[in-house]
Structure formats: C-alpha cells, structure tokens
Amino acid sequence: MYARRRRRYFALMGLCIGLFVLAWGVVRLWSVPVAVGMCVVAMVIPPVAAIVANRRGPEDHWWDDPSGDPQSDEWWDELDGRKRPR
Is the separation of the CB atoms in 36 and 24 below 8 Å? Predict the structure, then answer.
C-alpha cells in the first residue's frame, strides 16, 4: 500500500520535472506561451502529488489503533459497540 502511494508520488513529481525541462529546454523555441502553460500545469502537480501520497485507502484502519490512554480507548470502544479483551 505504502509502496503504491510512493510510486504514484514519484511518477507525478517526475512528470512535473519533465514538464519544466521540456517546456524551457525544447518547447520555448517554438512557442513561449505554450511553455508557460506547461509550467502552469507543472505548478499544480506537486500539491496533487502530496495529496495522493498522503491519501488513506479503505483498507487503512489507522483510526482503530489504540491511542495509549486506556480510559479514552475504553470510551471509544464503548461508543463503537466493541468489547475489549481484558
């Protein structure tokens, strides 16, 4: 799961860097407005990559982990209708 999110993050960031390099290394020779447009698209990719990398899947049950406070954990388990083994 973590490896999949990491691969997607690096793919998006590689695309971002590729767009910048392609825009100012090649495309600007033919069209500066297109190169600027490519950079604007590349500018939007890093926040999207961060969201993708930090997104939790439906199989991630991080909210089920005990907090370390026995009273709080017991209270939450009671609200969820679960019984804790003692």
Answer: no
pLDDT digits (tens, 9 = 90+) for 28-43: 999 999 999 999 999 9
The Cα–Cα gap between 37 and 42 comes to 9
Q: Collapse the DSSP code of 86 into the 3-class scheme (helix H, G, I; strand E, B; otherwise coil) and give the result.
A: coil
Calculate ∠ Cα 9-4-46, nearest 5°. 10
Q: How far is the CA of 48 from the CAs of 54, 57, 82, in angstroms? A: 10, 16, 37
Q: Residue 85 pLDDT more than 90?
A: no
Q: Distance between CA 50 and CA 68 in Å, rounded?
A: 29
